[in-house]
Amino acid sequence: MNAMIREPLECEGPVAANETMIEASLASMREGLGEVKTELRELRADNKVIREKLEQKTEAIHQSHLALSAKIEAVHTILRDKIDEEAAASNSKLEAVNTSLTAKIDVVNASLTTKIDGVNASLTSKIDDVNTSLTTKFEALSQGIADLRGMQKAMFWVFSVVGSLVAIAGTLLAIGKTLHWF
């Protein structure tokens, strides 16, 4: 057997101390690792509970949302129906008022047209009467002016003849006085 005898080295003392320290550190780490594993298990359990609560709350919120959506849709349907009814009622009222006012306007328009036609006929008759009267008066005035012109011509002739006779008589008288006939 070839066994060797080994002699203890001088550095074995500090190495053994290091080994003890390493073993103590490993034991401490194992103990810490055990605590971490325990805490990790607790956290996983807490996480599982929180996840379950979150899922419950999410489902409750989803159900609440669905119920609220259904209520909103019901209210929307009711309001839409009411709006449609009110719009139909308003449209029928407007149509009735429009028909009534159109009929009244047509009656008033016909009445005014009749009155306007009557006034137009009356005024046309009066204008024709005035026109006839003025035409008659203008014709009489024209005849009077023509008569005055004729009279003016006659007067002119009379004055011309009388003037000529006066001039001749004056001349004869002047000649007679010069000749001492008078």
Verbal overview:
This protein starts with 11 loop residues before the first helix and ends with a helix. The chain has one helix spanning 12-178. It is rod-shaped, with a radius of gyration of 71 Å. It is 92% helix and 0% strand. The mean pLDDT is 85. With 182 residues, it is an all-alpha fold. The chain has a domain at 15-140. It has one helix and no strands.
Task: Report Rg.
Answer: 71 Å
State the end-to-end distance.
227 Å
Number of strands: 0
How much helical structure, as a percent, in the residues? over 70%
Mean pLDDT: 85
Low-confidence stretches: none
Structural class: mainly alpha
Strand residue percentage: under 5%
What is the number of helical segments per DSSP (H or I, 4+ residues)? 1
Based on Cα principal axes, name the global outline.
rod-shaped
Please state the oligomeric state of the protein chains shown. single chain
H-E order = H
What about the largest sheet?
none
Short description:
By secondary structure, this protein is mostly helical. The chain is built from one helix and no strands. It has one helix at 12-178.
